[in-house]
Amino acid sequence: MEKPIEKALDECLFFSVKKLDRMLNKLADEAFRKTGLAPTYGFILLILKEKDGIPQKDIAQMLYSAPSTIARFVEKLENKGYVKTVNEGRLSLVYLTEQGHSFSKEVDGSWEELHQAYNAALGSAASEQLAKSMNEATDKLKKK
Fold first, then answer.
1. Of 1, 3, 56, 79, which residue is least crowded by CB atoms under 10 Å?
2. What is the pLDDT of residue 144?
């Protein structure tokens, strides 16, 4: 390697994305702390708020997570009384409970707090452009 390691790391897309991921995770953990849930649990509730009764595998695809990981998350949310699962053939459909619907309002607040935190640091326009660029890059890499 001809460059100093610090420069090489800063110019590496993989490392830069991981660094940004760690920073955003800190912001998300802070924003969702008051819910008592990690952000991914909150995202599952937000998905169900809009698409109630969808298969766990669809949730996994939306969150770019392994189905087994989402199954564990859904099980924990079910134990807390926020969701229920119904097996229909080979599909495991996930529904919000009444308690989950009520709690999703608190999750909405944390979601908004997360957006405000990174918009305050980066600016709204830069945040939108960064998300757009990253999604475009993801789509291109998916096709490879």
1. 1
2. 75
Rounded to 5 degrees, what angle do the CA atoms 29, 96, 66 make? Answer: 55
Crossing angle of the two packed helices 124-143 and 98-122, in degrees rounded to 10: 110
Q: Whole-prediction pTM value?
A: 0.89
Q: Tell me the C-alpha to C-alpha distance, in Å, between residue 23 and each of 74, 77, 79, 90, 121.
A: 26, 26, 30, 38, 11
CB 56 within 8 A of CB 67: yes
Instruction: Read off the tokens for 41.
Output: 């649990």
Q: Give me the amino acid identity at 23.
A: M
For 82, which DSSP code?
S
* pLDDT for residue 3: 83
| pLDDT digits 0-9 by tens, 16-32 | 999 999 999 999 999 99
**Res 1: pLDDT:** 59
Contacts of 51 (CB under 8 A, 6+ apart): 58
Q: What is the chain's alpha carbon radius of gyration, rounded to the nearest angstrom?
A: 18
Query: Helix (H, G, I), strand (E, B), or coil: what is residue 70?
Result: helix
54-68 per-position pLDDT tens digit: 999 999 999 999 999
